[in-house]
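Hi Q.,

Before the meeting this afternoon, I wanted you to have the magnesium ion prediction in hand. No need to reply - just skim if you have a minute. The sequence and ligand are here:
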Amino acid sequence: MKPIQSALKSWMRTNENFKENYTKIKNEVLKDQEIREFLSLNPQLTKQEIDKSLIKLYEYKTQSKQCNQCQGFESCKNMLPGYSPVLHVENNEIRLSYEKCHSKIMHEKAQEQQKLIQSLHMPKDILQARLSDITNDETRIQAIAEILDFLDQAKTELPRKGLYLYGQFGVGKTYLLGALANELKNFNISSTLIYMPEFVRELKASFKDDSFNDKIDYFKKADVLMLDDIGAEMQSAWFRDEVLGSVLQYRMMERLPVFFTSNYDLDQLEFQLASTKSGVETVKAGRIIERIKQVSKEIKIEGHNRRL
Ligand code: ADP
Ligand code: MG
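Predicted structure with the ligand bound:
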């Protein structure tokens, strides 16, 4: 049997087209700036080794290196999306390997951080809210200052108080919480955002089943708890005292912050919480308000209705 090299040569002789292509590719590869640099850094490589590795060198040339030809991980055009080729020499032979590119590393980090926001029934625009979109907004200066202060302290230790943001429908209260949650994830602090009417539904549905205590525990122990639209839920004495009361009590004792949004200020909320099917229970409602004051600071949010 003829050795493969000479068989290939004789085949190439009979196939001018292939030969032309081969020479064209070889010229292209050897003209490539990065490949020339690689070869000049490795003068020990023989002509034979370079010829033998032409396919690897060609592959290297065609792939995007550390995202130099792409916009981001989603649009990666490489054979192995998210991986960038690396040329190196081992025992005087050319080797081609792949390593994760910056975009893939960033993408993985963002995915990991996204897990830090646990949210139940929150709209997508809220989960994508950015504090930088809000900071120029004059109507919210006090709230933004408080949020920046919270973030600043959170870098070293989680502050014991969150905020109770109240104001008209549509002024951007929930949006502020979403933006805060997005900032907190940069410090690896997780936030649990829940829409109050869903919170009630969720816990009522699991009442008496095994998951009930786990769920309550989860809300008690979340790093940062965000209760969206308190006062909008159907009032039940059971939920107020056994669920909300006990979650807030725990967080107050453990000095864990809670953020709220509401259409009601705290006096109006007290009235709201007092009126249940069981009658008007001002003492019990007052107890909840006291706990809210222990875990948050009341701030009014003004501005126009952004939903109109
Ligand atoms: P609220 O909770 O006070 O009722 P939202 O936070 O739901 O109001 O905001 C109402 C709408 O306005 C939402 O669609 C939200 O995405 C948008 N929005 C609120 N604040 C901003 C902002 N600073 N920049 C851009 N859009 C905003
Ligand atoms: Mg809201």
